[in-house]
Every structure is written in C-alpha cells, then in structure tokens.
Amino acid sequence: MGGHWDSWDVGSQTGANDDGGGVIVCLEALRILKQLGIKPKRTIRFIAWSGEEMGQNNNGASHYAKHHGTENHIIAFESDIGSTKPYGFGITAGQQFTQLVTYLAQQYLTGIGAERVYPNDGESVDSGILAEQTGTPMLNVRIADNQNHDFYFTYHHTAGDSMWMMNPQDMDDNVVAIASIMYLIADIDGPIPKD
C-alpha cells in the first residue's frame, strides 16, 4: 500500500494533496498498527512510488512490479485522489474477493463511516501497473468530493497544493480507515480468493 512521492511542475513546496497526503496516511496507518502491537497474519508492505507524475516507463511502480511481481500480493492499495474525509473504498477484483472486502467494510467500518465499497472502481495509476502484470486485486480509498473531484482538481498541480489546504482531522480519518481495512484483509483466516 502507498502513494506516489513526487510532484514537480510548480515548485518544491507543492504536492501535499497529490500525493504527499496519500503517502503519509498510508505510512501513518502502518505506524499505528505497529505502535499498537497489531500483527496480522500476512505482511502489509508500504511503498512510496516515484516518477508517477512523469509517466515514464522506468517509474517506481514499474520498477517495483518488475522486481517484486512474482511475490504473493493479496491486494494493491493506493491513496492518490486526495485525503479528504473517507467514506469507503473502490475495489477492482473478482466477485468473491469483492464480496469479502464488502463484508469486512460493512461489518467493521460502519462505526467510522468508511463502510461503502464500489466494485470495479479500485484502480489507481501505480497499483494498476502491478495489477496489470500479476492480476493482483486493487483497492483505493473513496473520499469526500463531488463526482468530478472539484476540490481535488482546484489544487491539483498548482502552487496551492501545499499543507495549508490539508485538513488534519480528515487525514487522521484516512489513517484509521486505511489501517482498518488493510489489517482486516491481511488477517483473514485461510486463503484469500483472487477471483
């Protein structure tokens, strides 16, 4: 799980929402699991991809897929559409895996308001490279914005995409939602269906 750690077009102080926030909430989700001593049955790996904004073939996601694609990945999670209030997850996977994630979200994440699951809507740029090469299911966080992502695109690739526009409570809510769903998936008993 992770996000991309690059922003290049309007200066070194930008890239908070696209996608520094996504990187930080994923890293913090893992830190919290570790701090609480929570150890799922499967490894949760953090990745901060690079080069996503440049769109080159040798970017971090392509490099990762090339060198780690043969490893047993259960899910590829990416946070890359901002870090406003989370309300659920998009998933691109087979029917059984989608049903499993839907059950977990509705059973355990209703109390934090992150229980909605959107089938066939989990792809992101970086996780998509691994999925394309390996068939690994994809998951992303769904956040408060309108259908056109007007809030996100107001700041996207502008000098305004700095930490001042990030909401700390929304970022904390992302951390909790992401840590929760990733732990729940990683701690499932028995084999996890890929179809």
Automatic annotation (TrEMBL):
GO terms for biological process: peptide catabolic process; proteolysis. It is found in: Endoplasmic reticulum; Golgi apparatus; Lysosome; Secreted. It holds the Pfam family Peptidase_M28. Residues 1-178 form the Peptidase M28 domain. InterPro entries: CPQ, Peptidase_M28. The keyword Ribosomal protein does not apply. GO terms for cellular component: endoplasmic reticulum; extracellular space; Golgi apparatus; lysosome. Keywords: Carboxypeptidase, Endoplasmic reticulum, Glycoprotein, Golgi apparatus, Hydrolase, Lysosome, Metal-binding, Metalloprotease, Protease, Secreted, Signal, Zinc, Zymogen. GO terms for molecular function: carboxypeptidase activity; metal ion binding; metallodipeptidase activity. Homodimer. The monomeric form is inactive while the homodimer is active. This is Carboxypeptidase Q. It comes from Paramecium sonneborni. The lineage of its organism: Eukaryota, Sar, Alveolata, Ciliophora, Intramacronucleata.
